[in-house]
Amino acid sequence: MSEAPVVTRFAPSPTGFLHIGGARTALFNWLYARGRGGKFLLRIEDTDRARSTPEATQAILDGLTWLGLDWDGEPVSQFARADRHHEVAEAMLASGNAYKCFATQDEIAVFREAAKAEGRSTLYQSPWRDADPATHPDAPYVVRLKAPRDGATVIADQVQGDVTVKNAQLDDMVLLRSDGTPTYMLAVVVDDHDMGVTHVIRGDDHLNNAARQMQIYRAMGWDVPVWAHIPLIHGPDGKKLSKRHGALGVEEYRDMGYPAAGMRNYLARLGWSHGDDEFFTDAQAQAWFDLGGIGKSPARFDFKKLENLCGQHFAGMDDAALLREFEGFLKATQRSPLGEAQKEGLAQALLLLKGGIKTFPQLIEKANFVLASRPIEPDEKAAKALDDVSRRILAELTPHLQNASWTRDALEAAVGTVAEAHGLKLGKLAGPLRAALAGRSVSPSVFDMMLVIGRYETLARLADAQG
Length: 467
Known about the structure:
By secondary structure, this protein is mostly helical. The protein has three domains: 81-230, HUPs (Rossmann fold), CATH 3.40.50; 245-367, Glutamyl-trna Synthetase, Domain 2 (Glutamyl-tRNA Synthetase, domain 2, Orthogonal Bundle), CATH 1.10.1160.10; 380-466, Orthogonal Bundle (Arc Repressor Mutant, subunit A). It is built from 19 helices and twelve strands. α6 links the parallel β9 (199-203) and β10 (226-230). α3 crosses α5 (184-194), α5 (184-194) packs across α6 and α16 (388-403) packs across α17. It comes from Rhodovulum adriaticum. This is Glutamate--tRNA ligase. Its main location: cytoplasm. Its EC number is 6.1.1.17.
């Protein structure tokens, strides 16, 4: 008999952006499903109507799309399934696994105060748990789970190991509120069951919820999914990741110009390992990813490691894919789109540009010589290299370049001849040449730039720089 196909899910609450921790949870679910030919589903837990705006939901979809985490089927709205959640609660009432509780908030408060004064557990024990339905008043009520009070619930967790929770520590949780709306704890279980979820991979802040949710699964006679509760992400100082550590939302990393492949690679390594491998492709990550490789301790976010991996991904990225993502970056950050000439020049120059860059803004800076149009405006540092002496030397160099064959050797020879005539090393001419051609003090080799932009453009820029 073949095993059931793997089905994972990512179930965020819309908060206005996709948190970096949520993005990693989504990635782990995506990798686990894709590596096993399974399904990766998306559910938006939008029962909080005040926060669950279309814009907040769209921000999550945009974040996942940028990261390249494609989901199967349409996103499921938890709010839209309220009738189904209600139906399951009614079924539990009918089977005796749930009951109507008519206790008021004041009565519950009195119970807890008395329990606290007597040193007893303040978990509410409803007097309606075993009441005869014939004694039910005509009054508002909640529906509570009739949880077992003896024994223990064992969460067989793939990351944390077996976690045992005494049933005496769990209350008869509310399934339906007095207005008939389902609680989060009920909705999650019903949705995961109905969606066929086989593996629940989520943050370990949900670990305690698992014991309570298992009681709903068992009350309904449903299979319990495989649990994997992953540690949260901490900042470099070892404290829970927060705004003081920097960017929290995925779109912030997109807007800072990190490539999606580098972000996927880094997030995969943030709490999961495969031997000593640091840099890997999506295909390798999908083939290697398993729950046993997830560590029990919180991972620390490290910008230097992120940038290092992004640099490696830039260097190995297919040119067409890099250009597509670059254009997406320009659009997302509301920069001007590339013109046809800029696209053509950038495509020719990518071989020179991909090494050493870690973000798209660095690419923009390094590619200024093909993205900028004449007259090239030098930045402050580059302008200092274009003093009167340097301009005279560039004027002297111009006829040598006009007559040179346009090859690297010939260009180096022409520049070398002029440098030697002035008792200069070839490198001393690179500064003013770089300023004239790129308007920057840092750029690819001046000879590489000349070859990319061609004879006409090179001579025109040198003429502009001479004033």
